[in-house]
Structure prediction request, 97 residues.
Amino acid sequence: MKSGYSNDLFVSSSLISFYRKIGCFKDGNLVFNGTSSRRNVVVWTARICNNCKEENFRQILDVFKEMGKEGVRKYNFTFFSVLRACANINDDGICGE
Prediction:
């Protein structure tokens, strides 16, 4: 981020949430990509919620897997958001096969 707040995870997660609420999903993803390598569960969950609002349900699963590879512990709201996304995936009745 040009403003220099990329190392402040509270500000980053707040910006991601703000951009989601006003419908600027690409800007939220830019903030996420601009954060330092020290991303925490709040920043990751904000990204998942951003994708949920944008209805990128399949991408949420990829983000969730990436979050696990980074070693970030998930919490209840993270799981809830991913489950909500799974419920909205249209897979033509093949149930993820």
